[in-house]
Amino acid sequence: MKNTIFLYSDIIEAINMQSILIIIICVMAILAVGIVVMRTSLKAKVKDLSETLSSIPSYSKCYGGISAGIPADLENSFKEEIISATQEETFIDHYAPHIQEAQLL
Fold this sequence. Notes:
Largest sheet: none
Radius of gyration: 30 Å
Number of strands: 0
Order of helices and strands: HHH
Distance between the termini: 65 Å
Strand content: under 5%
Helix content: over 70%
Shape: rod-shaped
Mean pLDDT: 79
């Protein structure tokens, strides 16, 4: 009779260990799928933002109309000039919505 009790408890332990292993594998699979979905979503958002940024009009009117990037636009807009606080604020405000959108990613 004692051997039978130990045998049943061993079987129950083995089933419990299998259940725990299956649960761990399922949780890991769900996490992996979640990570893949998040990465895919972020890649799509980055692509949209890149397209938006590439079509931003340039701050400087004389540089061809399309921005070549913030540093290039800054350099070309204020070549050999001293930048006033108002000009600085206007320049920053020109790009602020796009920078905020990028920071939200």
